[in-house]
Amino acid sequence: MNGQKTIKYNMTKTYLVEDLFEDIEGDPDNVIFKIPPEICKAQGWKEGDTMHIEVVEGQMIIKKI
Predict the structure, then answer these.
(1) pLDDT in tens, 15-34
(2) Which of 7, 21, 41, 48 is an S-S bond match for 31, by CB 3.0 to 4.6 Å?
(3) Average pLDDT for residues 41-64, to the nearest whole number?
(4) d(CA 45, CA 42)
(5) Rounded-to-integer distance, Cα 52 and Cα 24, Å
(6) Which uninterrupted H or E stretch holds 63?
């Protein structure tokens, strides 16, 4: 496996909508999604990373690509 180690785990957290989403002034059809800092730190994500986000069975799945 080329000396690379793969770690896979699930993290389940519950947040209030108002803590995750922010309205965009002048754009009533879209919002800004704010990933909490503790999630970014735990996942090793940083500003500028490209993410894949999908909703499956009512749960949001976020993966760095």
Answers:
(1) 899 999 999 999 999 999 99
(2) 21
(3) 90
(4) 8
(5) 21
(6) strand 59-64
Neighbours of 62 (CB within 10 A): 14
SS3 54: strand
Query: Which long-range contacts link 43-51 to residues 24+ away (Cβ below 8 Å)?
Result: 43/11
Q: Which two three-digit tokens encode residue 39?
A: 């999630």
d(CA 58, CA 65): 22
Q: Scanning the structure block, which residue is given the tokens 């976020």?
A: 62
- What 54-63 contacts at long range (C-beta under 8 Å, 24+ apart), as own/partner pairs, is 62/35
- pLDDT surpasses 60 at 57: yes
Q: Are 20 and 9 in contact (CB under 8 A)?
A: no
Distance, CA of 32 to CA of 29 (rounded, Å): 11
